[in-house]
Amino acid sequence: MRDFLTVVSGVPRSGTSMVMRMLEAGGMPLLTDHLRPPDQSNPHGYFEYEPVKRLRADKSWVPATEGKAVKVIYRLLPELPAGVPVRILFLERDLREVLASQRAMLEAQGQRVSAADDALILAAFEKELAGVRHWMSDKANLYLPFAVLIQQPLHWAACIAEFIDPALDIAAMAAAVDPRLYRNRI
């Protein structure tokens, strides 16, 4: 029995929605509200849960999440209540690919984006990620390398199941990985 909350995290555009889809396919209940519809950037959906965005101000929903999975942006991980047991699946993706993916998503939404500040953004990401990794150092966590997970979904589905729940359907989890969506490669 899963007596903890499974948290899927990473920077935006790092593959968190893909891992949430894997967990769902494997048979894990998710905390998601489907308020943000699928689009060309995430055709299988975003798997977000609106109360997560207010985690700093309202943690009241977290204790009732045992046995489920929720997506939490990396910046909000330290806001999780200390008394709630969590297991964190943390996506790691080349930050240059993350920026390229974010730029493509924003451009698809009609926004004009410049690469002029990429070096500053990368430095800010690295600094924030160092702090989050330090916070995670005494938590149960599994780092998931995005590019390798795409190439070896069965292996990583098995790793996730071993970490979260061996009863998850590993084959279904692996089948949920859509390598066609790895569009911004460095």
Compact summary:
With 186 residues, this protein is α/β, with parallel strands linked by helices.
Largest sheet: 4 strands, parallel
How would you classify the helix and strand content by structural class? alpha/beta
Tally of helical runs: 6
Helix percent reads: 25-40%
* CATH T-level topology: Rossmann fold
Widest β-sheet, arrangement of strands: 2-1-3-4
Under the CATH scheme, the architecture is 3-Layer(aba) Sandwich
DSSP, total strands: 4
Overall mean pLDDT score? 92
**Which range does the strand content fall in?**
5-15%
**CATH H-level superfamily title:** P-loop containing nucleotide triphosphate hydrolases
Count of separate structural domains: 1
Oligomer: single chain
CATH class: Alpha Beta
Q: Topology as H/E string? A: EHEEHHEHHH
Terminal Cα span: 40 Å
Mass-distribution shape: globular
Integer-rounded radius of gyration: 16 Å
Q: How would you describe this structure to a colleague?
A:
Helix 1 links the parallel strand 1 (5-9) and strand 2. A 4-stranded parallel beta sheet has the order 2-1-3-4. The model has no long low-confidence stretch (mean pLDDT 92). It is built from 6 helices and 4 strands. It has one domain: Rossmann fold, CATH 3.40.50. 37% of the residues lie in helices and 11% in strands. It is of the alpha/beta class.
Topology:
Blueprint: E1 5-9, H1 16-26, E2 69-71, E3 86-92, H2 95-108, H3 118-136, E4 140-145, H4 146-151, H5 153-164, H6 170-175
Parallel strand pairs: 1-2, 1-3, 3-4
Task: For this entry, give a set of tags.
alpha/beta, 186 residues, globular, 37% helix, Rossmann fold, four-stranded parallel beta sheet, 6 helices
